[in-house]
Amino acid sequence: MAVLFVAFMILFAGAAATHAQSGGSITISNNGSPASGVSYVLDLSNMGKAGGSSTPTTGTTDSGGNINNVLDLSNMGKAHYDVYEKECVNGQTVVVIVPAGQTPKDDGCKKRRIGGFIWWNDGHDHVTIDTGTHTVTNSHTSTGTSTGKSTGTINPLPWEVGGGFNYYHETNEPFYGGWGNVAYHPKPCYAIVGQFTVDHHGETGFSSNMEWFMGGLRVDHPMDKITPYGQVLLGGIHSSFTSGSTSGSANAFGMKLGGGLDWNVSPKFSVRLGEFNYDYSHFGGGNQSNFDYSAGVVFHFGGK
Question: Could you tell me how far CA 240 lies from the centroid of its own chain?
Fold first, then answer.
């Protein structure tokens, strides 16, 4: 019985390991063609989870461009990763995979982040790292009978600047203008945002301007092609008007509560398809509730 039990445990462990490793793949290519003999490093030493190795795993891709240590990621469970390319003095390119938000150890080689991916660890991960186009994709097949592209989360570059058109609706008066913002992502899932909008309303003998200077927190869900988000912004408002020979201005507290959707054209450029906000203001001791809609473009940069 003891012999049978030991044999069963060995078979069970072998089957589990085979399933974990065969349940996903990571391939390195060069302009779409499998790249064999490419050096890679899986540095998971700071994951803080059971199964993590205290030393990085190294190796080279096989004839099909495959990384043969996918089991190391499976042991980590579902997690986010960043992918870096390192160029050393000998001209060798090394692909390094690290936990999201971390950078490869400094060894004198020039390094740059080329993308990121989420490892779902459900047996359907198929990551492709292309050193020719410097891109990372995860063709994550869904469970069940249907398959398709994954919309798994990715890791955006930490900084963004953007701007575009803004429509502000106050009572029955439409305002038209523009917006601009700067945002910093300490983590992929949220950002600290500074935003301003300037809008103008004009009619015969009367004109009015609204300027919002806001700051706050935005929660993102960055995916391969789109990034939905929600945000809360607080700040100050400056309102001014001119009616014939009369003019005036006032300042007030304001709040914007809303969200939007970005289309990720590339890691460095997005189109803001739309942002809709509920706008609260407090002029003259009273409360005002309005809304605005905006669209535009966003540029992403930063990272190493």
Answer: 38
> Which ranges in the chain are annotated with CATH 2.40.160.20?
159-301
pLDDT computed for residue 292 by the predictor? 97
From the list 69, 118, 107, the residue with the least C-alpha distance to 221 is 118
- In whole angstroms, what is the distance from residue 103 CA to residue 83 CA? 9
For 59-106, what is each residue's pLDDT tens digit?
888 888 888 776 566 666 667 788 998 887 777 788 999 888 788 887
Q: Which residue has better confidence, 139 or 226?
A: 226
| Amino acid (1-letter code) at residue 283 | F
Instruction: At 203, list the tokens.
Output: 């009619």
| Burial tier of 92 (Cβ tally within 10 Å: 0-12, 13-18, 19+) | exposed
Give the helix, strand, coil percentages of the chain, each rounded to 5: 10, 60, 35
Tell me the per-residue pLDDT of 241-258, one tens digit each, with 9 for 90 and over: 999 889 999 999 999 999
Point out which residues pair with 163 in neighbouring strands: 180, 297
Model confidence pLDDT, tens digit, residues 19-74: 333 457 889 998 989 888 888 888 876 554 444 455 788 888 888 888 877 656 66
Task: Name the CA dihedral angle for 129, 133, 135, 139, rounded to a multiple of 10 degrees.
Answer: -60
CA distance 93 to 229: 36
188 DSSP 8-state letter: T
65 vs 247: CA distance, rounded Å:
70
Is the CATH code 3.40.50.1220 the one for domain 159-301?
Answer: no
Helix, strand or coil for residue 224?
coil
